[in-house]
Design brief:
This protein is mostly helical. It has 13 helices and no strands. The radius of gyration is 20 Å and the shape is globular.
Length: about 300
């Protein structure tokens, strides 16, 4: 029994379940439209969340499978299941194939006929990230844009699932936050650069350049969010008070930036999961948002 638990833990590690927190973005369009707690929509989004998460795991597994030899030479990545030998390459590919089939099967069962946008966004995410693993991650600027596109595609996928739309301001806000986080990840990797252990693309970047892009993205993200929240009343008349959440969003970004500067990898997931004050600020934002957007329920 203990061996089975250890083996299952390795497969969960291989699937990078901790990274599923990013897929919470799928719920954002329905949350801001005020329909998140409608039973049919919530169930569909939950199923869609698991479908997207399964496909995300396939991408992670393929990346680890492809980079296994190189990861064995890395001081941290050498502990990954494939690189360490805990999970064989053949077993990893079979596991990935099962997850891919499961993800698309779930989506097929929940998606309404005639609306194939969710399938489209999921397929774009999958193909773009496979191309990223195959070599696009070594192309400067394009690598960061692909990292950012993953966050944006999650938003579009969530909107397609509940048959809603993403406003221009929300699209721009998510895009800028995505660029900010993607660039922050590269900055963390650049700051601890150490010969062959680093990504090839890092030689094209300087810390100063990455910080400038981060600052630009941060400023634009706050600006677009402010404009979006000010115009939210056009979508949800009861949500005009969302403009008062801007200071809280600023506090979240400031806290995140402080942590990102000292984090070894700049990984958004690890930063969020490891800091209690940031988690409290995020939960507070969610509770205030529910209070403002759903007070008429």
């Amino acid at each position: 029994m203990l061996l089975k638990r250890v083996h299952m833990k390795k497969y969960l590690q291989l699937a990078r379940v901790r990274q599923y927190i990013k897929n919470g973005l799928i719920f954002i369009p329905a949350f801001f439209e005020g329909t998140l707690f409608e039973r049919e929509i919530l169930l569909k989004l939950l199923a869609g969340f698991f479908a997207f998460s399964a496909v995300c795991s396939v991408v992670y597994i393929f990346n680890d499978w492809k980079d296994a030899e190189k990861d064995r030479l890395h001081p941290v990545k050498c502990s990954r299941p494939i690189a360490s030998g805990a999970v064989g390459k053949r077993q990893a590919l079979l596991f990935a194939a099962g997850l891919l089939i499961m993800g698309y099967l779930i989506l097929f069962l929940i998606q309404e006929r005639g609306n194939g946008y969710a399938h489209l966004y999921l397929s774009i995410y999958f193909l773009v990230n496979i191309c990223y693993s195959m070599g696009m991650k070594n192309v400067p600027v394009l690598d960061i844009m692909i990292l950012a596109s993953g966050f944006l595609l999650r938003i579009l996928y969530g909107a397609a699932l509940c048959d809603t739309w993403v406003s221009n301001w929300l699209y721009l806000t998510v895009l800028m936050i995505s660029l900010y986080m993607g660039t922050g990840k590269r900055r963390g990797e650049k700051a601890k650069e150490n010969g062959d252990e680093t990504r090839k693309v890092l030689r094209f970047y300087s810390v100063m350049y990455l910080e400038k892009v981060m600052q630009m993205s941060m400023i634009l993200a706050v600006t677009f969010y402010s404009l979006w929240s000010a115009n939210l009343a056009d979508i949800n008349p009861g949500a005009s008070a969302m403009i008062w959440t801007v200071p809280l969003v600023l506090a979240i970004i400031m806290r995140y930036e402080m942590l990102a500067e000292v984090d070894e990898d700049g990984d958004p997931t690890e930063i969020i999961l490891s800091d209690r004050p940031l988690q409290i600020l995020t939960v507070a934002y969610g509770m205030i948002g529910v209070g403002l957007l759903y007070r008429s329920i």
